[in-house]
Design brief:
Helix 8 (about 315-320) runs antiparallel to helix 10 (about 370-375), helix 9 packs antiparallel against helix 11 and helix 13 (about 470-480) runs antiparallel to helix 14. The longest helix has 14 residues, at about 125-135. Strands 1-17-24-14-2-13-12-11 form an eight-stranded mixed sheet, sandwiched between helices. It has 14 helices and 28 strands. By secondary structure, the chain is an alpha+beta fold.
């Protein structure tokens, strides 16, 4: 099969085979005896019968941007195009051909024989409907904010019109908005979250229990039979994939050691070195591992409004100099974390100039004495600094940062909520609920997209996530994010953020997925492996 996107081949060091490996699944899933599966009724053969993935899937909805749940959605649903992250080029999926007839205008011809797993035929009307539902979901505001029109040209051609388009944002739109049948979506009582999920992907949902298990099975009637144009993501190397939610990180490690799971992302720090040698960044004998660039911007942003003590720039600088980044990394991603050299200068962003990737050390150095000097200059008067903490693995970092603040005489409170309440607090635009936001923006390709917290246009209140309206900051952001933005524009924005100490980039890291030794080649898109497209020895 011709592959339209290059696969990431991750190092596999495996000399000992796990004999008699039992792969437990649900819904009557069978075991793998180390042989290829017998041919199906259609004559299709698979490299393996079942792959077990440890991850919690809470929804099957096609319009979501969850991290590990994308391993499932990429299997069941498909966008118009996918992006080759090595070449930065678009490759066909449901979309057959992409043209750019004029500035900000992109036209897509779709294949005229696309069907979903219920047999619904996909046309331009379904594409327009999918874009409408994606916008309504609210998950894609960041990339759809400059998409002003989606138009039908004919049954198999559509037009996307962007105004003041951000750099490469059309690629994100084409590769992130899944296309579904209007008839199938309207037949579901909950937007396919749990009821009647149905996509055009190479796998179909066989069973689902929210936050417990989802099982998908390869479609024998998958619509794209022309291997010369088939997207590599739709490869069917395993017949079934079971996504299982295990108890915790320790349970993941135990299950990987015993052979009960094949792929996991979440491993307790004390167990990670069982599977990977982090000095050489290779898998240890008996396992495999996939190392992926990660563009998630782990940072703190300050509430700079008059509602917060952090409106004082000297207090903000005191806080930054009080934090030992190495200590924060040790609390979160001790083996794979790396500090930033400048504001948001992540090596995985395609538009970050090389000048920003210099040696670390000059960016808000840890200096307790200097921190105390800035604190003395500030108007801080013993107020409690409220730190909003992302519940997805950030509590340890919040505790460490709080201790650093306490060491220079700043009182603090960690605001910890469950995921739903945290989302509400984080989305609040009043500027009254917290003083520091400790979180991350998941981003895979560009500096501007990792910094929408600075952009007034990303919010409805007339202020940005700093809770201020700084016209000069907005001018710099717009220049850096524009389609013709230059490296100098990006540098100017980063310099101004540092000058004003509006935000502090903490660290970035490499994403590691841990696997069984029967994975001989990993396939991935963005930060997720594609289980169906990975290659297996048994």
């Amino acid at each position: 099969m011709k592959k339209y996107s290059k696969r990431l081949t991750c190092v596999l060091l495996a000399c000992a085979l796990l004999m008699g490996l039992l792969l437990t699944g649900c819904g009557g899933s069978g075991s793998n005896d180390g042989t290829k599966e017998d041919a199906s009724a259609s004559g299709k053969t698979y490299q393996t019968e079942l792959v077990n993935v440890s991850t919690s899937v809470t929804t099957l909805a096609p319009f979501t941007n969850g991290f590990t749940s994308k391993m499932l959605t990429y299997s069941v649903y498909e966008p118009l195009m996918s992006m080759d992250y090595e070449t930065n080029e678009m490759v066909p999926f449901i979309g057959k051909k992409l043209t750019n007839p004029s500035e900000g205008v992109y036209e897509v011809e779709i294949f005229d024989y696309v069907t979903d797993s219920n047999g619904n035929h996909i046309t331009a009307d379904d594409v327009l409907y999918s874009f409408e539902k994606a916008r309504e979901s609210g998950f894609f505001n960041n990339i759809m904010s400059t998409l002003t029109a989606v138009e039908k040209i004919d049954d198999y051609n559509i037009r996307l019109v962007f105004t003041n388009m951000r750099k490469d944002v059309y690629k994100q739109v084409l590769s992130n908005i899944n296309i579904i049948s209007k008839a199938a979506y309207e037949a579901s009582s909950d937007g396919m979250a749990t009821d009647k999920p149905c996509g055009t992907g190479a796998y179909v949902v066989e069973s689902f229990v929210s936050a417990a298990e989802a099982v998908v099975v390869a479609r024998e009637d998958y619509w794209q039979t022309d291997d010369s144009v088939r997207n590599w993501i739709s490869t069917q190397n395993t017949k079934r994939i079971a996504f299982q939610a295990l108890a915790d990180k320790t349970a993941n490690a135990m299950s990987l050691r015993s052979g009960e799971i094949d792929i996991t992302y979440s491993i307790a720090d004390e167990d990670q070195q069982t599977f990977v040698d982090f000095d050489s960044m290779t898998a240890k004998e008996g396992y495999s591992a996939c190392f992926m660039p990660n563009g998630a911007h782990r940072h703190i942003t300050f509430n700079c409004s008059t509602n917060s003590p952090c409106q004082d720039v000297n207090l903000r600088k005191a806080i930054c100099h009080a934090i030992d980044i190495d200590g924060v990394i040790a609390s979160c991603d001790r083996y794979i974390g790396a500090r930033y050299n400048e504001y948001s200068a992540c090596p995985s962003y395609t538009d970050v100039p090389a000048s920003m990737l210099k040696e670390a050390g000059s960016y808000w150095e840890y200096d307790v004495d200097l921190a105390k000097e800035y604190l003395a200059k500030s108007s801080y008067n013993g107020e409690t600094i409220r730190i909003l903490v992302n519940p997805a693995g950030w509590m340890a970092a919040g505790t460490v940062i709080g201790a650093y603040l306490d060491a220079i005489g700043i009182k603090y409170e960690l605001l910890s909520y469950d995921t739903a309440l945290y989302a509400d607090q984080h989305a609040d635009e009043s500027g009254t609920l917290y003083d520091i936001d400790l979180s991350e923006i998941s981003n895979f390709f560009a500096f501007w997209n990792a910094n929408t917290t600075l952009d007034i246009n990303s919010y409805s209140s007339g202020v940005n996530h700093l809770f201020i309206k700084d016209d000069h900051l907005q001018e710099l952001y717009d220049a850096a994010a524009s389609a013709d933005g230059t490296p100098e524009d990006i540098q100017a924005l980063a310099d101004y953020v540092d000058e004003q100490c509006y935000a502090y980039s903490l660290f970035y890291c490499t994403h590691v997925f841990y696997g069984s030794d029967r994975i001989t080649k990993w396939a991935r898109i963005e930060r997720q492996p594609i289980p169906g497209a990975c290659e297996y020895s048994r």
